[in-house]
Design a protein that fits this description.
Shape: globular
Number of strands: 2
Strand order of the largest sheet: 1-2
Order of helices and strands: HHEEHHH
Largest sheet: 2 strands, antiparallel
Distance between the termini: 17 Å
Structural class: mainly alpha
Length: about 140
């Protein structure tokens, strides 16, 4: 059986990567991010409201900040860090999922399902990390 600290570290590392990928792309190449995210020929953001370099760069910076916090928590896990960081990321993820689930127009059925599933997976990971950290005696 996987020890809780290993599982929570793996969840945190995955969450950090899930935040670093769009964060770095949106920060370093905002127009490319807007036109081509998530990559591999898919275009989830291109059908949204008009492009704004300011907004995309701000979102990238937000994601990078969370990537740093999540990576730090994976490196030095403690309940005092994990619970608030992952709770905040879960709140963001829930609101993010809710908005995108309500605005699927312009996406193919495949992309609508893939986008919704990926956002739900990030939310589940953040909630799971909080649940594990809250139940564990110490990290």
């Amino acid at each position: 059986m996987v020890r809780p600290v290993r599982l929570v570290r793996a969840l945190l590392a995955a969450l950090a990567v899930s935040a670093a990928y769009p964060g770095a792309w949106a920060t370093l190449a905002p127009h490319s991010f807007f036109a081509d995210f998530p990559g591999a020929g898919r275009h989830w953001t291109a059908g949204l409201p008009p492009y704004s370099a300011h907004l995309v760069t701000d979102v990238g910076a937000f994601y990078l900040a969370f990537a740093l916090l999540l990576a730090w928590a994976a490196w030095r896990p403690s309940r005092e860090l994990l619970v608030p960081v992952c709770s905040a990321f879960a709140l963001f993820s829930a609101l993010h999922l809710g908005w995108h689930a309500a605005h699927l127009g312009g996406l193919s059925s495949f992309d609508a399902v893939a986008q919704t599933a990926s956002l739900a997976g990030v939310l589940a990971g953040a909630v799971g990390a909080v649940a594990i950290a809250a139940r564990s005696p110490s990290h």
